[in-house]
Design a protein that fits this description.
Two copies of one chain form a homodimer.
Chain A (H helix, E strand, L loop, with lengths): L11 E6 L4 H17 L2 E6 L2 H4 L24 H16 L4 H16 L13 H11 L2 H9 L1 H18 L6 E3 L5 E6 L6 H16 L4 E6 L2
């Protein structure tokens, strides 16, 4: 297992996220607008908050407790739910890019923006995930992909290994093609194409400014 | 003692800093350029990292351990040095603005940018602080101000109370006249006037963007 994170592919921004995180959801929605409206390219990558914050992982870069090595359905609701969602997400990534994004966003919305009167999805609930897959993916291919749990866990491990090596600590984190990488948390959903491009331009300017900005964080 | 932080004065940005912090030093240098070259107004305020991170202060907004209530010279080097530096800083603030800034910057530079071959200043060393005061202030007035330790501690307490109420957690933190307030950490010293203005514009745009950006933080 390599300890060196893969460099982002040429021109592609790696987007690390956890389905548990409401800020990751906003980041995914932003990236989806940039992808659809402005031709930008993002790769969907998984980072686990449960793993990152686990008491057995005091050294963020060298975890000893890995989510991908846990038994399905075990541990806290967060642990079991995020592992289940990640494995479904990895299965979706085997399909074409638009379908994989549609499923990923559908799962995020079911968790963080459920329709009025509908409870948020329980990420452990395979029946509910299956319904989202049927709405967005080739459901038969998704079902077959899910049967290869070992392969899905290996793919998840690669994401978790890369995010650990890079020092990712929260989501969404964007890893730009130029190597800059930072957590980016914003409170308001941005879906208007012009506003999305402006926000992205602002974020990347922060990361490329000659002062080498390391942190901007509101006091609360 | 009021628990409500004073709003920033009209058009004035409050700059919270700790002499211990190398990033606060960069923030002060930036603000000084903006002040001298671009007519912006900043108020020098104190925030204590020793107090903020103290084990007896788990609730950042409601400290029970206050630096301004400690015996001079007691505690760790950080504690004793920062209290000593803050009290000198408060004494300097009784003089005119340019002199107070000159002293504050001289103290920061002696700590974080000593001349080659010269050790960094020991903030507990009153003789060294006196030398800096003689180079930048009306030294007699400074000496008289230092005699009113109770008044200096009361002024320091007001800064520490306001920073606690505002949720300041690190330095430099800038509290803009519009109410936005955020920690701003950058690695490279910025002293060129155009670059300083560009950096400040970028920082304030982050805080006023419609997405309500809460955090940009590099993974390491």
């Amino acid at each position: 297992m390599t300890q060196v994170a893969q460099p982002s592919r040429s021109g592609v921004t790696d987007l690390y996220f956890d389905f548990l995180c409401p800020y990751a959801w906003r980041g995914l929605e932003l990236a989806d607008v940039l992808r659809r409206e402005h031709g930008m390219r993002f790769r969907l990558r998984h980072f686990s908050l449960v793993q990152g914050n686990h008491a057995e992982n005091p050294d963020r870069k060298h975890p000893t407790w890995w989510l991908d090595r846990q038994v399905a359905g075990q541990g806290s609701d967060y642990q079991a739910g995020s592992l289940n969602a990640f494995l479904a997400g990895q299965a979706a990534l085997q399909q074409d890019e638009d379908a994989a994004w549609a499923f990923t966003l559908a799962l995020f919305r079911a968790k963080h923006q459920p329709a009025e009167g509908v409870p948020a999805i329980d990420l452990r609930n395979d029946g509910q995930i299956r319904l989202l897959a049927e709405a967005t993916l080739d459901a038969d291919a998704f079902g077959r992909a899910l049967e290869d749990q070992e392969g899905l866990r290996a793919a998840l491990h690669e994401d978790l290994q890369d995010s650990a090596t890079l020092g990712v600590f929260g989501t969404p984190t964007f890893h730009l093609p130029d190597g800059n990488i930072a957590y980016f948390r914003f409170a308001n959903l941005v879906t208007e194409p012009g506003a999305a491009l402006d926000l992205w331009t602002l974020y990347t300017r922060v990361l490329t400014d000659g002062a080498r900005i390391e942190t901007v964080k509101r006091a609360k």
